[in-house]
Every structure is written in C-alpha cells, then in structure tokens.
C-alpha cells in the first residue's frame, strides 16, 4: 500500500492541450502520479510520446486495445486513480459526459468511473456561451462534476471572453483540493462564499447597484483556499482578480446569485459576504429608456430573494455553519444581533459602513463576529486578517 496520490488525466482535442505537458510536470513535483488518456482529436495537438516521457508511464488512446484490455481493462483504468481529471475539457467531451455517451476510451472511462471527476474546460468563447454548452454545464454540475475555470481572457483564436483554460498552478491546486492534499485547518471542508454587489437592471444600460467592492469576500475565498478548503466563490460584478485554486462563478443579479448558491450545495460552510440588493426593478425595460415630456419614469420595485435566510432555512442541504455579513451605519452590534435572529443563521459578521467606518472599497476593516452567545471584535485589521479570524473560528467550530 502507498499513500501516493494518482490521477487519470484525460486530454481532449483542444488548442490548449499542450498545457497538459506542463500540468504533468507540476503534478509530479507534488508527488502525484499521472496516467494520461488522450482522445483521438487530442493526438492532433500533443503526441503520446511526449506524454509518456513526462508521465513516465504508458499513454492510453484506444478503447479497443487488445493488449490493454487483457492486461488492465477500461473499467479498472477508470477506477484505479484517486481522481479523474479532464484537461482541457472540450465542448465535445462535456457534451458526451452530460449525455452519457461512451463511444471512445475517454468517454467510456468517464461513464464507468466511480471516482470524482474534475474538469478544466477550454474552448472558444462562443462555444462556451452556446446554450447547448451552458445546458451541459448545468447537467454536469448537477451530476457532481467539479470545475476549475474557464478563465476570461484572450484566446488563441483571437477572441476574448470566458473559455480560456485555467492556469496550470490553479489546476494543480484544484486537483490537490479534490484529493484532499491541501493541508490546513480547513482541509477536507467545502466553503461557499458570495461576494461583491449585485446589479439589478433598470434597462439595458442602467442598473441599481451599491458600493461593495467585493474585497472582503475575495479575501475570504483566498484565505479559505490557503487554509486548505475547497472554495466556491460566487461573485457579483467586481474589478478584482479571481483568486487562484478556487471555483469561481460570476453572476449579475440577486436572483442569479441565489440560483448559483443553491446549485452549488451541499457545502460545509456558507459565508454570505455579498451586498445583495434588497430590491430590483419589477419590470426592467427591454430598450434604453428615453427622456419624455410626459414626466419622470416611475420605477416599481420588487423584493429580491433573501439568500442568507434561504440558506439558513434549508432542511436537507443546510450547511453546518451559515455566516452572514451585516453592513450597518449605526448601532452596529445591536442591529447585527437582530439580523442574526431574523435570518436564522449561525453567525453575523458586522461592520460599520458609515463614512466613519470607511469599509467599502478599503483594504482595512473592523469586524464583530456575533453568535447567539458571543461577540468577538477585531478593530482596524486588513480584510485578509479579518477573513483569517472568521475562518479559523469556523474551523474550530466544525471540529467541536
Ligand atoms: C485547431 C483546432 C483547435 C480546436 N480547439 C478546440 C478547443 O480549444 N476547445 C474545444 O472544445 N474544441 C476545439 N476544437 C474542436 C475539437 O478538436 C473537436 O470538437 C473534437 O471533436 C474534439 O474531440 P475530443 O472531445 O474527443 O477531444 C479545435 C479544433 C481545431 C481544428
């Protein structure tokens, strides 16, 4: 018996396939062994010889390989690793996975495996945004497939947008997290964090927003990952770089944030750090609203979903620890204690966002972690330090 971790790496036929060579090197540095499987299209982009040399093992390409079937067999191959990783995951492979196709070695292994599957998609932005791919993504997430990326950026095809393969170190971190190699007080724990503001459209060019920069939520995601957690960050629009080694989901409105949150359960800890708009415009205009002589437009508001209360109320999938944030401008602790009761969450992290508190967009903050029985205050700390205090307390709580 050995403690050495191993992954089955399925390499799809995308332009980013060459990056799997670097991925194999980095994984080996971390003492993770790699068995490569190359799709037929994949052989157009990277050679079995390069893969076999770097991985120091045989590369599997063919379902009907007599030698392999007699020696190991595709079922055994699908089960002997700790994790199955698909990088790059092509639109085609994702479609096959979502529909249960098994017409080549890669798709058969993905259907036959009893191990977790982590995919790193990479494709042209239009392919990624196509409704068919988006449907497949939803299905795969429901099936429990983990995602790393894709990132937003320039592509080999000259277009820009979501669809770039995640950077190799981020894929390595996601793999380590999936096989519980990340060491730290939160290793083995999954955390979902919401961050940033939401934008509620008035018409195609205007929206209702707030001053949240997202810095506190992003700091929580970054620190949680460093402490060993498996992190999902669901963020409204911000200008911040995405922390590495986490799952990142970008949303715009409160309703999208609620849907993404519920779709990414179960988790051990949920931290609602986003400044979700309380209201949206009931009927946003399809076209840009124009000034008219008839007077001012009347905007009727509707209440947005209360994500924190929704999470706290869940029966089956309620996280063990639900933490909310309260941005208050007066009598901060009293208001936060009321919010704790009203929402039914476990802790409220309160901060003073009055002009005096100067929290929005700033790198410093003062927080009060409020539970039913205790108040712990941390004054004038960086948002990273505040995150660390919250997360170390959470780690302690979950060990009790
Ligand atoms: C030059 C070139 C680059 C390609 N890059 C990608 C890509 O990045 N992502 C993708 O999903 N498909 C890409 N394709 C299309 C796939 O190769 C094609 O869908 C193939 O059937 C995928 O097979 P596989 O999923 O079995 O690997 C590319 C095709 C060509 C010719």
Task: Give the count of structural domains.
Answer: 2
Helical stretch count?
14
Integer-rounded radius of gyration:
23 Å
Strand coverage percent: 15-25%
Helix content: 25-40%
What's the average pLDDT? 90
- Amino-to-carboxy terminus distance: 32 Å
The outline comes out as: globular
CATH fold label of the largest domain: Rossmann fold
Structural class label: alpha/beta
Please mark out the parts with pLDDT under 50 across 5 or more consecutive residues, or reply none.
none
CATH architecture classification name of the largest domain: 3-Layer(aba) Sandwich
CATH H-tier superfamily of the largest domain:
CoaB-like
User: Got a strand count?
Assistant: 19
Q: What small molecules does this complex bind? A: flavin mononucleotide
């Amino acid at each position: 018996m050995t403690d050495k971790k191993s992954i089955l790496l399925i390499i799809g036929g995308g332009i980013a396939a060459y990056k799997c060579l670097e991925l194999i090197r980095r994984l080996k540095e971390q003492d993770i062994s790699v068995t490569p499987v190359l799709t037929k299209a994949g052989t157009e982009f990277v050679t079995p010889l390069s893969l076999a040399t770097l991985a120091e093992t045989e590369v599997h390409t063919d379902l009907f390989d007599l030698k392999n079937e007699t020696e190991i067999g595709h079922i055994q191959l699908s089960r002997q690793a700790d994790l199955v990783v698909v990088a790059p995951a092509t639109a085609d492979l994702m479609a096959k996975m979502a529909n249960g196709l098994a017409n080549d070695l890669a798709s058969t292994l993905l259907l036959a495996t009893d191990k977790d599957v982590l995919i790193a998609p990479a494709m042209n932005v239009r392919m990624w945004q196509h409704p068919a791919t988006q449907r497949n993504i939803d299905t795969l997430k429901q099936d429990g497939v983990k995602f790393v990326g894709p990132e937003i950026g320039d592509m080999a095809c000259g277009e820009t947008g979501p669809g770039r393969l995640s950077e190799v170190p981020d894929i390595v971190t996601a793999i380590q997290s999936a096989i519980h190699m990340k060491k730290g007080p939160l290793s083995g724990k999954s955390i979902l964090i919401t961050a940033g503001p939401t934008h509620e459209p008035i018409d195609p060019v205007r929206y209702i927003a707030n001053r949240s920069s997202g810095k506190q939520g992003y700091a929580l995601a970054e620190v949680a990952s460093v402490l060993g957690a498996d992190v999902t960050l669901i963020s409204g629009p911000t200008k911040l770089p995405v922390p590495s080694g986490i799952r990142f989901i970008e949303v715009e409105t409160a309703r999208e944030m609620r849907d993404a949150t519920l779709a990414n359960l179960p988790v051990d800890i949920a931290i609602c750090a986003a400044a979700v708009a309380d209201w949206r415009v009931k009927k946003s205009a399809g076209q840009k609203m124009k000034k008219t002589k008839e007077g001012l437009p009347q905007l009727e508001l509707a209440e947005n979903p209360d994500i924190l209360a929704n999470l706290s109320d869940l029966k089956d999938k309620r996280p063990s620890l639900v933490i909310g944030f309260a941005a208050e401008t007066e009598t901060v602790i009293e208001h936060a204690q009321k919010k704790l009761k009203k929402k039914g969450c476990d802790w409220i992290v309160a901060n003073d966002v009055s002009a005096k508190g100067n929290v929005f967009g700033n790198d410093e903050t003062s927080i009060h972690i409020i539970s039913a029985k205790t108040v712990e205050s941390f004054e004038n700390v960086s948002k990273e330090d505040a995150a660390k205090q919250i997360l170390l307390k959470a780690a302690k709580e979950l060990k009790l």
